[in-house]
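As a representative case, we now present a protein record of this kind.
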Amino acid sequence: MTSYFDGIAPVTFQGTSASTDLAYRHYDADEVVMGKRLEDHLRFAVAWWHSFAWPGGDPFGGQTFERPWFGDTVELAKQKADAAFDLFAILGQPYFCFHDADIRPEGADFAENTARLDEITDYIGEKMEAGGPKLLWGTANLFSHRRYMSGAATNPDPDVFAFAAATVKTCMDATIKLGGENYVLWGGREGYETLLNTDLKREDAQLGRFLNMVVDYKHKMGFKGTILIEPKPQEPTKHQYDYDVATVYGFLRRHGLEDEVKVNIEQGHAILAGHSFEHEIAVAQALGIFGSIDMNRNDYQSGWDTDQFPNSVPEVMLAYYEILKGGGFASGGTNFDAKLRRQSLDPVDLVAAHVGAMDVCARGLKAAAALLEDGSLEAAREARYAGWNTPASQGLATQATLEQCEDCVRADNINPEPRSGQQERLENIVNRFV
């Protein structure tokens, strides 16, 4: 135990009449929704990087947070882990997530990095055995160190490729050792700044080879979890190769990985790609590659990835509607890839941010479940496409030729009129459940 969160009691469900802001008003872990406990639907995870490693900087200013565990020693990393598990005990969430660089200090070389990672994962493992939450997923930070300034898997230097691959292996080992349910790859710098020095075909091949190596190692180790890619457009590079879900799917198909890898979708990244969160989830469900989500939000005036805690129930509801419609999470969950504002300095701010976010998600999921069970939206969707259910129309969709279509239109004198999409009526239906 540390003293950082002293005086903050474990958060409990107290309902909407709660008199403190450090109580769950809507998130009752044991509440049953659509035949499943709310905790099992949402599968909340706390992100180690933003909650314990982020110093509070932004592009225009440096560190504002002064955490007692900030530093580059293993002992301070263990103190950070102590604080993390104190917060976990306060929140009572079932999972957490980490990058290797979040939990261990950077060493002088690969051997020291690995030794420090092994030591700290042993320490974390002991705390998990004592009753802490489980690991939703682990990942490697292949973007912060200067060696990765030109990418990791796509780097023009084969030594960087090899170093990154070796690092992923150690992080997969750590994830497996801690019982992680997934492994995520986020290509933070897998892209380019200028085409003047970039070989796109070569870099695509390198990235495909790298991911195939990851999948091969998964099977060699007997890891039953899911390999996930997290799409992100632009920032930090001018053009990211994992721009959005559709782009990632095309990459997976090119390299024979569409049945091996799924996606971890972040709300903020969806917005940066010019999409909505629910769009990216719906695309992933349609393509059969939906895996997990990073829940956060962006400031829509800033135009960049601000990673704020979610606060919009209507937005969250639409995301969970697509998730529930697709059958819910399997091995994935709701990871709060969100950070405090630079001015939020107090330990209680970190607790309150997660409490509010968990309540927003609970309200959103319950509203989504009610809408799905009501059936009005799906009935309207079915009615819109009902014409495709006739035998003739099914043949049109699967085997008709252009000549046959012409013959049919001429023979039956087909002259269709447009039909209303009824968007406003459907939006009104949605709003009745928020």
